[in-house]
Amino acid sequence: MIVRKEHRVLVQGITGKQGTFWTQAMQDYGTTVVAGVNPSKAGTTHLEVPVYACAVDAARDIGIDVSVMFIPPMAARAAAIDACEAGVKMIVCLTEHIPAHDVMEMHAAAAANGVRIVGPNTAGLVTPGECFVGIMPAFNAKVFKPGDIGVISRSGSLGTLVSLNLTQSGFGQSAFYGVGGDPMIGTTSRDALEILDADDRTKAIVLCGEIGGSAEESAAEYAATMSKPVVAFIAGKASPPDKKMGHAGAIVSGSSGAYGSKRAALEAAGVAVADVPSQIPVLLKEGLDRKAA
Amino acid sequence: MNFEEYAAKPLLAKAGIAVPDSELAWEGETAWRIAERIGKCVVKAQVPTGKRGKAGGIKLASTPDEAKAHTESIIGMEIDGHLVEKVLIEAQVPFAKELYVAVLNDTASKNPMVLFSSMGGMNVEEVAEQDPDAMRKIPVDISRGLNFDAALSALKGCALDGLEKDVAEVLVRLYQAYRDYDAELLEINPLVLTQDNRVVALDCKLTVDDSAASRQAEIIGQAAPEKMTALEAKAHDAGLKYIDLGGSVGVLANGAGLTMTTMDAVTYYGGTPANFLEIGGEAYTKSRIALTILLENTDIRSLLVNFCGAFARTDVMTEGLVSAWRELAPSIPIFFTIHGTGEDEAVKIVRDQLGLEPFDLMDDAVKAAVNAAAEAA
């Protein structure tokens, strides 16, 4: 799903420094934040919304569509399971460095409860001009502008750069979908591609990938079936193999996850691949012109 | 974190999986004394790599003198880039059959996966490649775990000399150890069926999730130190990820994706990146220490700073960097491109304190840094 103004958002970890800073930014931008969670501050009010001991308690009083987690790594599993049991539709998990076994348990709880997890290690979702959930500079008018390009990115910083390039070139975004840099994420690049393909406001899509894993190869399979133009950039061509580049996902071992195989899979699916992000707007124009012709 | 055989086996034993009697030796004399106590033994190089046998790092010894001689020849060897400093002296176990068992994180199913082959031993990779059916893949639902009945039924049809139940029990215990120690991979190759009908682990490889270090405090002291250059180690101690890339254009960016992209752009415009160094996420306040690490690399000829702040505030990163830059007064040129959270303040800091104008387009900053490095070379 794409986040909308009418979605009721719960902030887990609302009273912390980052939780406070970003909740305020989300509220100012137009996001409907309805409640927060902090077990030791239950019953109080923070940023004009009620604070609950857990997501399940909050859901008993208020309908919740989306929960966003400002939660440290070791507490993330419990918080995500709480949100699943509260019956939210979607969890946006920003936390990086959650132990992998905990991540697997989070995904199992989400599957059992029919919940979509975005992340872990995502920078969040932005619907420019409407609302955002996460830690993206949605409010920076140089970076985000309402428009008709969907942007998918494993990395928040690269997604910011690409959105900026689009805005600098006169494009705007219908939605930014941060899928997260972890190796085991709830919503893959392919899933996000399907979501944006089904979105009426999105005319073309930019996919920002990275070396490591097989997310781009899998997304390419779906892209081959699409009529909307897709342009991709894959970070990591100049990165040496067998080195972990900070993102747990960005490691190439042997030939799997290497730049060449990702690029080949995307190009075979009819996706134009940019060498540097600044080429993306040019390739998008070409794709849209070709489609209009 | 990788655990060598000598550090991983006691964890298997604790989980209830049989391992041979063994002791660690750092030189020949100790090896001789251990071999005298143990009897016929195997001398095994202790390095965090799987290619010891083929490299000549594992040798049989019938007498203490042989154990001493093998120890002295194996210590000092280099195997797969690792210098051998110690050997494990382990009792020989006569076996009838070699199996392969492992539990790992399967990223595709987002669940654990148990692997089993009745053709274990040194060539298991080749066996699995030539005959995929020889390696059984047993998916496990992490919310249910692996119970004995499921393990036993997964072994159906394997000729295990009547020891099916014992092997199934090993799988259950191995899975539990994998869970208890936050393993990314826990592997026994070979797991042998002995001539006297026991099931014994003759080797063990363990990789523990770095993200779980804080709750694995009891065992992380046993992990093999990571191979790092001096600068990589210094960055690691400061909580930063630095990788030496041998080029001349220094790269400082926030977030792994943006940092890799910046390196790609340097290469695209004809330069060579000197390093990978990112200060994104929680590390965004560390630009000062990051700069000192970058400047210790003597190959660096220009510095390219690419901040694109989402969570990381560019004003905080820039403030720390610029004040350190003024204090250290390096002789190389620096080029900025800054966008995202806090960019107006960040751009002002660069203008006011360094008298420099950040580039609006990343490509222009990259080209300038590449040109400056080329001119200085």
Which descriptors would you attach to this protein?
heterodimer, A: 293 residues, alpha/beta, Rossmann fold, 2 domains, seven-stranded mixed beta sheet, 9 helices, 34% helix, 23% strand, B: Dna Ligase, domain 1, seven-stranded antiparallel beta sheet, four-stranded antiparallel beta sheet, 37% helix
Topology:
The complex is a heterodimer of chains A (293) and B (377).
Chain A: E1 8-12, H1 17-29, E2 32-37, E3 45-46, E4 49-52, H2 55-61, E5 66-69, H3 76-86, E6 90-93, H4 100-113, E7 116-118, E8 124-127, E9 131-134, E10 146-153, H5 156-168, E11 173-178, H6 189-197, E12 204-210, H7 215-223, E13 230-235, H8 259-268, E14 272-274, H9 280-292
Chain B: E1 2-3, H1 5-14, E2 22-25, H2 28-38, E3 41-45, E4 58-61, H3 64-74, E5 78-79, E6 82-83, E7 87-91, E8 95-106, E9 111-117, H4 124-130, E10 136-139, H5 148-154, H6 164-180, E11 183-194, E12 199-201, E13 205-208, H7 217-220, H8 230-237, E14 241-244, E15 249-253, H9 256-268, E16 275-278, H10 287-295, E17 302-309, H11 314-328, E18 334-340, H12 343-354, H13 362-376
Parallel strand pairs in B: 15-17, 17-18
Antiparallel strand pairs in B: 1-13, 2-7, 3-4, 3-7, 5-6, 8-9, 8-11, 9-10, 11-12, 11-13, 14-16
